[in-house]
Amino acid sequence: DAGITQSPRYKITETGRQVTLMCHQTWSHSYMFWYRQDLGHGLRLIYYSAAADITDKGEVPDGYVVSRSKTENFPLTLESATRSQTSVYFCASSGTVSSYEQYFGPGTRLTVT
Amino acid sequence: KNEVEQSPQNLTAQEGEFITINCSYSVGISALHWLQQHPGGGIVSLFMLSSGKKKHGRLIATINIQEKHSSLHITASHPRDSAVYICAVRPNTGNQFYFGTGTSLTVIP
Question: Which residue, among B74, B73, B101, has the nearest Cα to B87 in the 3D structure?
């Protein structure tokens, strides 16, 4: 089915481990985004990508790495997970800058112990 | 620093009531996005606005660019409208949206 998917949906990991969250979209959207959602905060942008091989930092990029070798995939890596990175992570995509409207994946709940 | 303020934070209504959720922002924007997040966590786009008013079913969104304010109205509210409603703005400069913390709506039968 067309859409935007994330995997895994739930993940528990230990402090210091590397974790990769996957995001895949089937619309060939140019823009993709990674957000984290925490109690008391609105969604906060971690990184975004305007096209394959083009990425840029958002509001809270520290501790995260992204890549985008293919238009449809935008993985987010926590190189050395910390407890403060316990959160719900959402991936989103949008077709073009001018359309603006974002479509969100179902989210990944990550717990770092 | 959150440039987007939503009110109220929490709202409980009886089924059938008219509901208004407000969003204020502090910077010039090119677009404002209303989203809905259900208890299961999924986030759905409701409206994208840059001016005026949009309507979809029982939902109406308005924006006043001069006053830096938007409202989301729900007419004839229903328990299935229970969700968190999120406002996000895209400033004139930059490529990212800034999100409010959401308004949690509960509609009681």
Answer: B101
B33 touches chain A (CB under 8 A): yes
Residue B22, pLDDT score = 98
What letter would DSSP give residue A83? Answer: G
CB contact under 8 A, B33 and A101: yes
d(CA B105, CA A101): 23
Residue-by-residue DSSP string for chain B? ---EEEE-SEEEEETT--EEEEEEESS-EEEEEEEEE-TT--EEEEEEESSEEEEETTEEEEEETTTTEEEEEESS--GGG-EEEEEEEEESSSS--EE---EEEEEE-
The answer to whether A100 contacts chain B (CB < 8 Å) is yes
List the 73-102 stretch of B: residues with Cβ below 8 A of A.
Answer: 86, 88, 90, 95-102
| Set of chain A residues whose Cβ sits within 8 Å of the Cβ of B95 | 31, 48, 50, 56, 97
Digit-by-digit pLDDT tens for chain B (109 residues) are 558 999 999 999 999 999 999 999 999 998 999 999 998 779 999 999 999 999 999 999 999 999 999 999 999 999 999 999 999 998 888 778 899 999 999 999 9
